[in-house]
Every structure is written in structure tokens, then in C-alpha cells.
Amino acid sequence: MTATEPGGHLGFGGQGVRPPTTTEQIKEYILRAHLRPGDLLPTEAELCSLLGVSRSNVREAIRTLAALDIVEVRHGYGTYVGQLSLKPLVEGLVFRGVLIPGDDFSALREVVEVRQALDLSMAEQIVTEMAGTSNPDLENLVAAMERKAQKGEDFFEEDREFHSHLLAHLDNFLVAQLGTAFWDVHQVVSPKLGLPAPEQIDLTAKAHGAMLRAAEAGDADAYRAAVVAHYAPLQDALRHVAATVEAERAAAATVTGRGERPVAAVEAGTA
């Protein structure tokens, strides 16, 4: 029996319907049993009996689910429902962002656009929740970012914590997870482009302070303006990088069109 063969004990399958994989069956079991993150799953032998599949199928399915953070294998203790984080999404997006040398800026531009759209879409809710409040923890983070910006230092950790704190005011766990996930991708890909520049760091740090003040004042319009200002320096830099890359490609195409061999071809001796 292969990993895609159906099990017979949970009533899966049906005429004309693709048989569920063992992976799908285990996910369905978690849902039917109303298990939560951290709950213990049945043993390997028990899953084999419940699903009507072989040990090799269960092991293969568990490996797949563990990679997706749907289950967590604790050797010597058992298999538990995972934390269901977006870590696999982050890893996939990071890999996509660095897969094609010279095209990193496109991946980062897309991530920045999604981050900004997410922040703007949550503006009303964040402002509503934070209006009239005092947030010393966030104020301390802003102060730390501004100090580091003045020294030309990055403030990745403070930046991440600031946005996590803001999203924590929302009654929406998925939005908080998405915000953190896209921030993590941003953090990994951005330095590969030599971004941001010192002046951009300073503007970004100040924009965080403007976001906080607007949220505490209950001013949604000012908050949205601060969000746009937050991302503007990086977006300007990305447009500059894109224009530079495009100019270099155009120049290379012009040289090739004149009958001159590209440097790489000359070195390889193949053109």
C-alpha cells in the first residue's frame, strides 16, 4: 500500500472520488477529534489501525506534516499537534526571494507591498483598540530604534517586536501571524540587497514613532500616513535597484546586438 492509498476505518473515499492520502486522513483525524496545538496524537500503531494503512505510510505522512508544522515529533515522547505556525510559508518565500540571483529586489518589493497593504487594512482596528492608551513598551522600542538609526545601525529585532505588539491589539491571530511571517521574509531578503541606506533607517525609525502617536491619539488618517511613510524609503530604494538592474540588462543587450560577445560567454569560450 502506498502513501496515497485510502484507509478504511474512518469512512473516507467513495466511488468516483480520489482516495484521501494518509496525510489528509491524519489532518482529518485531528479535526474530528477536536485536538489543539500541543495535544498528543495516537501512537504510530494506533494510527495504522485507525486509518487502515501501513506503518511506512504513517511515517511518511508524519514527516510531511512535521515539515508543515501541523504535527511535532518529540522523540521518546510521541507525536503532538504542532503550533500551526507560518514557518513553512516564510521558508518558501525566503527561498523564492534568493533563488534567482539579481532578482531579489522583485521578491522583496512584493513582500513590502503585502506588508504595507496588511498594515493599512488593519489601521482602523488598531487605532480603535489603542486610542487613549499609553504604551511604554512601544515607546521604548521607538526610542531604541531612533538611537540605533542615529548610529547607522539596523534595528531588526526592535522593528519586529514593535509590529508584533501592534498586531497583538487585534482579535485576529491569523493577521498577527501573517504580519510576523512577512516581516521575517523582509528581514532575511533585505540585507542581501544592501538595504536600507543610513538615511532610510532614520526615516523608518521616525515613522514608527508617528504610527504609535497616531494610534494612541485615535487618528486613523495620521496612522495610515505614517504607515506609508514607514515603507516609502524602502520602496524608493527598490525602485532605484530595479531601474539599475534594468539599465544593466539593456546595456548588455545593446552590446550583444552589436555582435560583441557577453563577458560570461567569452570566459566560458562558448559564444
UniProtKB/TrEMBL annotation:
Q: Which Gene3D superfamilies does the record associate with it?
A: GntR ligand-binding domain-like (1.20.120.530), Winged helix-like DNA-binding domain superfamily/Winged helix DNA-binding domain (1.10.10.10)
PROSITE patterns according to UniProt:
HTH_GNTR (PS50949)
Domain named HTH gntR-type is located at 16-84
Q: Where is the signal peptide?
A: none
Residue ranges for the region (Disordered) are 1-20
Keyword set, alphabetical order? DNA-binding, Transcription, Transcription regulation
Among Pfam families, the record links this protein to: FCD, GntR
Q: Which PANTHER family match?
A: TRANSCRIPTIONAL REGULATOR, GNTR FAMILY, UXU OPERON TRANSCRIPTIONAL REGULATOR
Q: Tell me what this protein is called.
A: FadR family transcriptional regulator
